[in-house]
Write a structure and sequence with these properties.
single chain, about 260 residues, alpha/beta, Alpha/beta knot, Trp Operon Repressor, Chain A, 2 domains, six-stranded mixed beta sheet, three-stranded mixed beta sheet, elongated
Length: about 260
């Protein structure tokens, strides 16, 4: 018998600290999103899920998280999740069996129905580049499962048979998929209705398609300033202090 000690983060009473094993919301609201995270280092997500807007979204029931410790899905006393690669070579490769069991445990949860509203992603250096367009597409889903790779890589049978696609956050190498998973979560979650206080602020951000101040083909947001008007002889552009909204809009369009 395998003992599974998933760390669950869900809807909690206002003011209550969200901790591992806190109770899930028993019913889902129409616009919330659930993330399943499969990892051998679940504690890496503790502070990420207990701070700032992510924590507030959990408390409001906008987001749910199920962090699965892959080592709990092993059967040997050493809780082995990796092994040497066939054909030789340096490094270790993550095994297919524990990942398969983790994904099966997700399917076994009450009311789970595999459909187009759910996707499983493998964080991988050879995956397709993650960008804002991808985050917008993923934000329309109800449930996303993120498989965090480690070591030299993941048994290719996972990519071929168990996930919908592989995703990379950039052309560089990290120790594992946990940090990329956090990047994907934050980029996607902030687009879910109810995550940010003012949804209009999302329209004027860098890479946002709907930004009214960006000419076609440009993706950077215009420069931002706040008080004081002058610091160390560094002054805020006068046009931003003019109160002339048409000129301000023209200036911002020029600067994107």
């Amino acid at each position: 018998m395998i003992e599974n000690s998933n760390q669950q983060y869900g809807k909690a009473a206002v003011g209550q600290k969200i901790l591992p094993h806190s109770r899930f919301a028993e019913s889902r609201i129409a616009e919330n999103m659930k993330f399943n995270i499969i990892t051998i280092f679940p504690n890496l997500f503790d502070s990420f899920l207990n701070e700032s807007l992510v924590k507030k979204a959990i408390e409001k029931g906008v987001l749910e998280f199920n962090v699965i410790n892959l080592r709990d899905l092993t059967t040997d006393k050493h809780k082995t999740t990796d092994d040497t690669p066939y054909g030789g070579g340096a490094g270790m490769v993550m095994k297919v069996e524990p990942i398969y069991k983790a994904l099966e445990s997700i399917k076994a949860t009450p009311n789970f129905d595999k459909d187009d509203s759910k996707k499983t992603l493998l964080l991988s250096a050879k995956g397709k580049q993650f960008d804002q367009t991808k985050s917008e597409k993923l934000s329309k889903l109800e449930e996303i499962t993120l498989v965090c790779g480690r070591y030299e890589g993941v048994d290719e049978r996972v990519a071929q048979n168990l996930v919908d696609e592989e995703v990379s956050i950039g052309k560089y190498i990290l120790n594992g998929g946990e940090v990329p998973a956090m990047v994907v979560i934050e980029a996607v979650a902030r687009l879910v209705p109810g995550f940010v206080g003012n949804a209009e602020s999302l329209k004027e951000e860098s890479f946002a398609k709907a930004c009214p101040t960006k000419p076609a083909g440009r993706s950077r947001e215009h420069p931002q300033y706040t008080k004081p008007e002058e610091f160390n002889d560094w002054k805020v552009p006068e046009v931003l202090l003019s109160g002339d909204h048409q000129k301000i809009k023209q200036w911002r369009t020029k600067k994107t």
